């Protein structure tokens, strides 16, 4: 059985986008994650070594988002998923990347891309 660990609202300021001003000035990105993990070993032993360290996951995601700029949120979402799947306890990850300040000439609430990736 796979349990679900959710980490939501990870806010990061970064420099991604197809326009030069996006890379120059930067903007806010928000990441939501749902990780497929078996939490039974951690629950049984009550030991962090048996659990996914979500503090480390968040730090790794922030580092991934603030690293080398890319044009597309599709590329950035894949980068985030790859980082999360480095932990062998994570069977799959659903990554939602929000770009609420995207340069769109209309009133809108959010642009969000959700991808699901697994180790298989």
From TrEMBL:
Enzyme Commission number(s) of this protein: 4.1.2.25
Catalytic reactions of this protein: 7,8-dihydroneopterin = 6-hydroxymethyl-7,8-dihydropterin + glycolaldehyde
Sequence ranges assigned to domain Dihydroneopterin aldolase/epimerase in this UniProt record: 5-117
Pathways per UniProt: Cofactor biosynthesis; tetrahydrofolate biosynthesis; 2-amino-4-hydroxy-6-hydroxymethyl-7,8-dihydropteridine diphosphate from 7,8-dihydroneopterin triphosphate: step 3/4
MF terms (GO), sorted A to Z: dihydroneopterin aldolase activity
Domain of life: Bacteria
One Gene Ontology term, aspect cellular component: cytoplasm
Alphabetical UniProt keywords: Folate biosynthesis, Lyase
Coiled coil: none
Record GO biological process: folic acid biosynthetic process; tetrahydrofolate biosynthetic process
InterPro entries in the cross-refs: Dihydroneopterin_aldolase, FolB_dom, GTP-CH-I_C/QueF
Residues making up the signal peptide according to the UniProt record: none
Protein family: Belongs to the DHNA family.
Function of the protein: Catalyzes the conversion of 7,8-dihydroneopterin to 6-hydroxymethyl-7,8-dihydropterin.
PANTHER family, per database record: DIHYDRONEOPTERIN ALDOLASE 1-RELATED
Protein name: 7,8-dihydroneopterin aldolase
């Amino acid at each position: 059985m796979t349990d679900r660990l959710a980490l939501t609202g990870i806010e990061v300021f970064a420099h991604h986008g197809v326009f030069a001003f996006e890379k120059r000035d930067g903007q806010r990105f928000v990441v939501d994650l749902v990780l497929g993990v078996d939490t039974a070993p951690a629950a049984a032993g009550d030991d962090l070594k048996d659990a996914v360290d979500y503090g480390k996951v968040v730090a790794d995601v922030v580092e991934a988002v603030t690293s080398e700029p890319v044009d597309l949120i599709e590329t950035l979402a894949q980068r985030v998923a790859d980082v999360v799947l480095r932990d062998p306890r994570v069977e799959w990850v659903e990554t939602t990347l929000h770009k609420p300040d995207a340069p769109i000439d209309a009133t809108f609430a959010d642009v969000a891309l959700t991808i699901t990736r697994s180790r298989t």
